[in-house]
Structure formats: structure tokens, C-alpha cells
Specification:
Blueprint: E1 35-39, E2 47-56, E3 59-69, E4 85-87, E5 95-100, E6 105-110, E7 115-121, E8 133-137, E9 141-146, E10 151-158, E11 162-170, E12 182-185, E13 188-192, E14 197-202, E15 209-210, E16 215-216, E17 225-231, E18 237-243, E19 249-253, E20 263-265, E21 283-285, E22 291-296, E23 301-308, E24 313-319, E25 330-338, E26 347-354, E27 358-367, E28 372-375, E29 382-384, E30 392-396
Antiparallel strand pairs: 1-2, 1-30, 2-3, 4-5, 5-6, 6-7, 8-9, 9-10, 10-11, 12-13, 13-14, 14-15, 14-16, 17-18, 18-19, 19-20, 21-22, 22-23, 23-24, 25-26, 26-27, 27-28, 27-29
Length: 401
């Protein structure tokens, strides 16, 4: 889906050193520092902002700490589920990478010093100014999905958060779509094209090689188009969030190393219902994989479905109340991230896209494995000062997969 490009008001602040945190408890505000990172996607100057998590149960807070100029330009919009800011899913991660869709490059930022390490272009043919540039990575490579040129570029990770461009490959959907959601596990890179089709690539040798499994999802017959994707910690299942009228999620068994036909979960069937919300482009598993968090853009809510990680099956869980200030002044939900690295994640952060101003919302999550509930504190959301079109956030320390 396309969003209008927005001009951002640029603010500045002194950098504050990042203290590397330890593991966090899932049931209370962590004692060690936790940071929410944003790709502010500015069309004049792009920044990655750092927010410090704080507060207490019932009154969590996010406090702006600093920003890092990426020395690139964003587009102020694009695919809801395209991951524009990302880091290695490990508490020892030293680098965060942010894409600049307007200039078509990737910025590396040192997490410890909160300083720019460099700006790294792909080839001249890699263009992402239509709907953004998504990023996924492992310890050796960063993969960038370009939405205009329909390509995936590969960068080799070098010391000091440096990147070296290695090459690119064609990556287009069966129905004219471009890379939107991307996720990887081991040697498998999974891509959703936001046109009803999905595909996987083998990345054992760095440069992606298609597994020859491009296919339309089960939802394609109903005009439900996979846009976002997450992969289970053991690499057994890929879970797709659909751009659709009703909440729709699709699951593919990838244990063979390739995509298999998806099983669709949507509203209105007794065995496959996942929630009452509308639209579901972004999905995010809780750290313990007991819950799948799902965005409901058209209803301004977040749903949580119970997930059986052994069988890859979903059952209906709970849906939040309409989020504060929905459509006044923000109107779309981008990515999701959990505060804690264990359990259900404790607190769920929500990127809230506004046409003139954007926010980071937070939902407190409670679950006993049978029932669940999500509630938004009265002091949510926090304004993202540098962004008029926030769609991508991450948390440090990250979820461990």
C-alpha cells in the first residue's frame, strides 16, 4: 500500500551513550535500559531516533534520548510491513541498520556510541522510492528489498558496522508486486510481495537464489494479499499478515526449506477465526511464541491470536480497544515490537503513522495461555518528534529470533 510522502520537522539533541542491557523479565518494567529505535523516514533528512523505556506497570513511558542523522532521505510512507530499521536478533548486537528509500542506500549506526558508521549504496539500478526498502540481516549479510526496481541487494557485514555491496537479484511477485515484508531464518529468506504472492530464497552462499517456490497464497482468491511475514524461532513456520478487509493471517510450513501452500486464518469461521479487526498487514510473534500480534489498520486496534508453535495453528485470542488518537491525528499502524525478550513481551510498542505527526503507542499484555487482554495506558502514545510518517521501529535488546 502506498502512503503520501510527508515533510518532517527536524529537531536535534545531544547524543547519550547507550548502556548495554541484560535480559529482561516479561512481567514488569525491566531494570536494565531498553531502547526503542525508529526509522523516521524523513523526506528532507532521515534520522534514527532513540527512546528510553521507563515508567512502571500501568504507566510506562518512552523518553526521547537522541537522534542520528543517516545522511540519506526517506519517503515518509510506503508498505506498512517493510522493515526499514533492523539489527541482529541478539543482545550482543553492536549495529543497527536503517534504509533510506529516497536515496536508495543503507546507513549503519554504532549502537554503543550512537554514531553514524557510514552510508552504503547498492547498485544504481536498486531503487526503493515507491514503497520503501526493507532490511533483514544475519551475522554475515544484510539484505535490502527495493520496492521500485523489484530487486534484493546483498551487503556483506564488515567490522565497525560497515557494509560492502556484493550484488543484487530480481525479486518480483507473480502479479506485479514488489518486496514488502521479509524475514530470514538460517539459509532461508522469505518474501511477501503484497500482490497475493510469496517466495523464498536460499542464502547459503550469501547472494539469494530463488527456491523456485513462488506461489499465490490461499488468500489470493479472496483478494487478501500477504504483506508482512515472521518466522518461528525453530524455522518451522512462516506466518504472513495479509493486507485484507477482514483480519487474515496465513501460515506456511517451511521445514523442508521451501514454502508450502498456506493455511488461511480469518474472521467468520469457527476453527480458523483470529479476531474481529480489519486489515492485518503486520504480524509479530511474542518472544515465547505463544501469541501472534496482528495490526488492524482499518479499525485502529491490535489483535493477539494464540499460536501453537508445534503444529503451526492459530486460535482467536483478544483484541485491544481502539488505540488512543486513532484518526486524530494518526491513521495507520506500522511495525510492532515487544519491550521484553521473554514471555509475551510484557509491553507491545506500536508504530503509528500520521500525516503530520507520528507516534509510538504502547499496550500492556496479559495472558494465561487460555485468555488474554491488551490495555493501553492513558499516557500512550509518545510523539515521535522527527517523523511525519513513522512505519518502522525496533527494540534493543531485540527479541532473540
Amino acid at each position: 500500500m502506498k502512503k503520501l510522502l510527508q515533510t518532517l520537522t527536524i529537531l536535534a539533541s545531544l547524543a547519550i551513550p547507550l548502556i548495554l542491557p541484560a535480559a529482561n523479565s516479561p512481567s514488569k518494567t525491566p531494570d536494565s535500559p531498553v531502547y526503542v529505535l525508529t526509522n523516521d523516514d524523513g523526506v528532507l533528512h532521515n534520522y534514527v531516533s532513540f527512546y528510553l523505556a521507563g515508567g512502571s506497570q500501568g504507566s510506562p513511558t518512552l523518553t526521547f534520548q537522541t537522534n542520528v542523522n543517516t545522511f540519506g532521505k526517506g519517503i515518509g510512507g510506503g508498505y506498512f510491513a517493510s522493515p526499514r530499521v533492523n539489527l541482529l536478533p541478539d543482545p550482543s548486537a553492536q549495529c543497527v541498520y536503517a534504509s533510506n528509500a529516497g536515496t536508495g542506500d543503507v546507513s549503519g549506526i554504532n549502537l554503543l556510541t550512537q554514531t553514524l558508521a557510514g552510508v552504503f549504496p547498492a547498485s544504481g539500478g536498486d531503487v526503493g522510492d515507491a514503497n520503501g526498502v526493507g532490511l533483514v540481516l544475519n551475522a554475515h549479510y544484510v539484505y535490502a528489498g527495493y520496492s521500485t526496481s523489484n530487486t534484493i541487494a546483498t551487503f556483506a557485514v564488515q567490522p565497525g558496522c560497515q557494509l560492502t555491496f556484493l550484488g543484487d537479484v530480481a525479486a518480483a511477485g507473480l502479479n506485479g508486486g514488489s518486496p514488502s515484508g521479509m524475514a530470514l531464518h538460517g539459509n532461508l529468506l522469505v518474501v511477501a510481495y503484497a500482490d497475493g504472492s510469496i517466495e523464498s530464497f536460499n542464502i547459503a552462499n550469501g547472494i539469494p537464489v530463488s527456491n523456485g517456490d513462488a506461489q499465490n497464497s490461499a488468500g489470493f482468491a479472496f483478494a487478501y494479499f500477504p504483506e508482512g511475514v515472521d518466522i518461528t524461532q525453530d524455522g518451522h513456520f512462516a506466518i504472513f499478515g495479509d493486507s485484507s478487509v477482514p483480519t487474515t493471517v496465513e501460515v506456511s510450513d517451511i521445514s523442508s526449506g521451501k514454502l508450502t501452500p498456506t493455511v488461511m486464518y480469518t474472521v467468520g469461521t469457527a476453527t480458523n477465526a483470529v479476531g474481529p479487526g480489519h486489515n492485518s498487514a503486520v504480524v509479530r510473534l511474542s518472544p515465547d511464541e505463544s501469541l501472534l500480534y496482528i495490526t488492524n489498520n482499518d479499525s485502529g486496534t491490535i489483535s493477539a491470536a494464540f499460536f501453537d508453535k508445534q503444529r503451526g495453528k492459530l486460535t482467536r485470542g483478544c483484541t485491544s480497544p481502539t488505540l488512543n488518537y486513532f484518526y486524530n491525528p494518526w491513521g495507520f499502524v506500522g511495525s510492532l515490537a515487544t519491550r521484553d525478550t521473554t514471555g509475551t513481551g510484557g509491553l507491545l510498542y506500536v508504530a503509528e503513522f500520521g500525516f503530520t505527526s507520528s507516534y509510538i503507542g504502547f499496550l500492556e499484555v496479559q495472558s494465561d495461555g487460555i485468555t488474554c487482554a491488551m490495555s493501553e495506558p492513558s499516557n500512550s502514545p509518545t510523539a515521535d518528534l522527527l517523523s511525519g510518517g513513522l512505519l518502522s521501529i525496533q527494540v534493543f535488546p531485540p527479541r532473540p529470533f
